[in-house]
Amino acid sequence: MAFRILSLDGGGSRSLVQILTLIDLYRSGGILLTGHTVLADFDLVVADCGGSLVLGGLIKDLPLADIRRFFTPDGLGRTLFAQDPRSTRLLARLGRRLTGHGPRYATHSKLDGLRRLLNDDSGEAGIGDVTLDGLRTRLRGSTRFVITAFDHERRREILFRSDPDSPAACFGVPAVATLAEAIHASTTAGDYFDAPAEISRGRRCWDGAVAGYHNPVLVGLAEALAGGVDPAEIEILSIGTGSVALPLATGDEDPAARKLVRQRRASGRSDGKRHVAARFNEDPPDTVSLLTHLALRQPVPQHAGETIETSSLVRLNPLVQPVHAGNRWLRPAGLAEGDGEADDFVALRRLPNFTTGARDLALLEKFCALWHCDAIVNQPIRANAETLACEIGHRRYSDAKAQWLARTRPQPAMSEAQPNPLGQPFAPSIAGGEIPRPSSAPRFAASRTG
Fold first, then answer.
1. Are 132 and 147 in contact (CB under 8 A)?
2. CA distance 425 to 444
3. CA–CA separation, 194 and 187 (whole Å)
4. How far separated are the first and last CA of the chain, in Å rounded?
5. Where are the extended beta strands (E) located within 123-196?
6. What is the pLDDT of residues 36-50, one digit of tens each?
């Protein structure tokens, strides 16, 4: 019996990568399935920022292709990321040019857009104004959800749960929010929006990345462990939104190769500090995948050159990274070379999380397509710090995808005389079937076969 967790990174507009990847994973005879079919494969889903928007589409039971339309210039620009009029003023533009970031979107408009998006008549109508704990009576499945955010007043993380009685939660008043409000809180990045998100009970929130939950996989693991799930039963699919991982420059690179490496910066300069702050917000370091792998008691390499590919955690995340060949770093195939932002690799390095530009979104879709066909490398769970070689995990998307599908592929159906350990008829999950749970089962009893 397996307890399956889906973890969706933050990333704003870059969560386009996540829905395109779910579409790729759930193609069946050319038919794209709907959100509840995906959710039926998981006991728990944790999401931050743009990942929470994808989760909202899954909960609404939209076809995956319709969720993909969230991440179009119209879907983002007109519905979610309405420009703050003050952002066009000269001082605001000058401030963004000097610092590399600054508010440009109006927070109050985003909640209205989310409510319109989630409450229309498609899929589960009116779902945006249902509280997360109320979703349990509206949805056919038993999947639980956690959406991460940051409490502006308390200066601490805040987790919006569909199960307010989760053993991982403290005994204080639970954080109550509608689905639209929880996504609103999780998608309000301080570098881009003019004010924190205001939700129920007077709470004001920023996105979960401020609390260190850009990759929320440890939140999901903690929920499962606190609920009494055996670590040996936990399987996690973690989907990112694209990260930058560049080798350090040696000083010997030609002009073409210099675009592919990270230049060394003098310490102690204000320019360096601004650079570090900006990159942390756009592309925070990711160590939680390795911590999760270790917490699940998974193997580690015993010597240099060994690669551990089998893990209970499957990490899918494309990297903006050159390809190492011999002693050289080469441009990934398919990324056009050019001057300045006309260079695909340079543009991807600088791509902001909250972009509504048609060119940026088209480039992001191209980036994802190249990753799916293994031209772009996949993020390892652990990489060699010098060579960037994969030590734990998968270097290629196709290999990581194959491992996950091997875990979720339907097994031969049991006969009626062979009930499963929960005493209920077997139903395969990858085809969208739901595994019934006995009413007496523990809160976090494993419920998926694998």
1. yes
2. 19
3. 13
4. 6
5. 144-151, 156-161
6. 999 999 999 999 999
